[in-house]
Amino acid sequence: MKKILLLCSAFLVLSFGLAACGQEVKTPTKTPEKTTAKAVTTRKDTRQYFEQSWKQTWKGLETNIKHVTVVQLSNASKTKMKTKDQGVISVKMHVKNTTDQDMYVFSDQATLVVDGKTNPIFKNDSQNITEKLAKNSEKDILLIFHIPTLTSVTQYKQVILKWAMSTQKDATKTDGDNSKKEEVTLSLTSAK
């Protein structure tokens, strides 16, 4: 009798196991989650280079403006730069001190007049704007100006760059003999 009971139990376990394998298991279907993805139109910055040929020597300090770059910023760049300004204008210049004394280029106080409006230098993005230029040395300077209403890289025909230079370290002690205020009109019509 024990054998029959054992056989019946084995048969029952086996039949339930096989029945479970043959059943179609239905998993509850998930309704797709609604996600709202903001469509972002990515556009690269638009830029235009304008070569310059302005050169001057004052008391052994040679200044050469190499080029002006006008950049209309993309939304991605404005976000990255944390700015609402529509564009940037940069001026690259090279200065060389050919004298036996230190000279001072106050490029950190430069301004750019665009369409009648004066724009101060944006010091955080500019490069090599330290004032002192040691005797017999040279450097490239990159001046950056944020432009609030730039709608096209060819929008402006000219800009006016203003800065000062001196043989004196203290900008407040400069006069006509030991310093010079520069004001240069740069053309933005011949693209590079």
Structure write-up:
- Residues 171-184 have a biased composition (Basic and acidic residues).
- Keywords: Signal.
- This is DUF4352 domain-containing protein.
- It comes from Listeria rustica.
- With 192 residues, the protein is mostly beta strands.
- It has a single domain, classed as Immunoglobulin-like.
- 15% of the residues lie in helices and 39% in strands.
- The strands form two sheets. Strands 5, 6, 7, 8, 10 and 11 form a six-stranded antiparallel β-sheet that branches. Strands 1, 2, 3, 4 and 9 form a five-stranded antiparallel β-sheet that branches.
- The longest helix has 21 residues, at 2-22.
- The termini are far apart.
- The model is unreliable at 10-21, 23-28 and 30-41 (pLDDT under 50).
What topology does this entry show?
Blueprint (H helix, E strand, L loop, with lengths): L1 H21 L23 E6 L3 E4 L2 E12 L2 H7 L5 E11 L5 E3 L5 E4 L2 E4 L11 E2 L4 E10 L10 E9 L12 E9 L5
Antiparallel strand pairs: 1-3, 2-3, 3-4, 4-9, 5-8, 5-10, 6-7, 6-10, 10-11
